[in-house]
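Most newcomers find our protein records easier to grasp once they have seen one. Sequence and backbone structure share a record, each on its own labelled line. To make this concrete, we reproduce a full record directly below:
***
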Amino acid sequence: MHQAAQLVTIVLDISDKDTRNMPRMKLSSKGRYAIQAMFDLAFHGEGSALQVKEISLRQQIPPRFLEQVFQDLRKAGLVRSKRGPRGGYQLASPPAQIRLGDIIRAAQGPLTWVLEDDEASKHKTTGVAIMQHVLRELGERIDNCLDSVTLADMCQEAHDRGLSQIPSTPYVYSI
């Protein structure tokens, strides 16, 4: 992964007690599920459409919640949906062009690291103004870090760690 990506550890499913000494950023469940689903499409789909049922089983995400996540990702232009027997969801762009920051913003909205503008404007000469400035800079760094990691980077990491690709369930038609 990129060096900038290593500055922030995104903790997906590790309890707080296990991460006390690690730098961390907590994501909402929707943000985590969006990253997991997009990774699954990139790693297991390899350009073809995957059904929600398959992704849900592999990633242990409730199917109804996963459908909601995919609707947000589709509205953001990150995935396409296909109808029919070989239907499902697929990436709208190659994995190397889809950044973690894009996924998180699609699922959760813009990441906010600063106070509301009218609140900060009341305190232009206090520590609040300094905090606002520092939080804005920190937010830009975190956004840049998230935008430096792509789905292709995650797939490469999975390959490096020996994660096996599970082929899609074959369709069996009987008459």
Remarks:
- The domain at 4-110+150-160 is CATH 1.10.10.10 (Arc Repressor Mutant, subunit A).
- Residues 127-147 form the longest helix (21 residues).
- The beta strands are 79-82, 88-91.
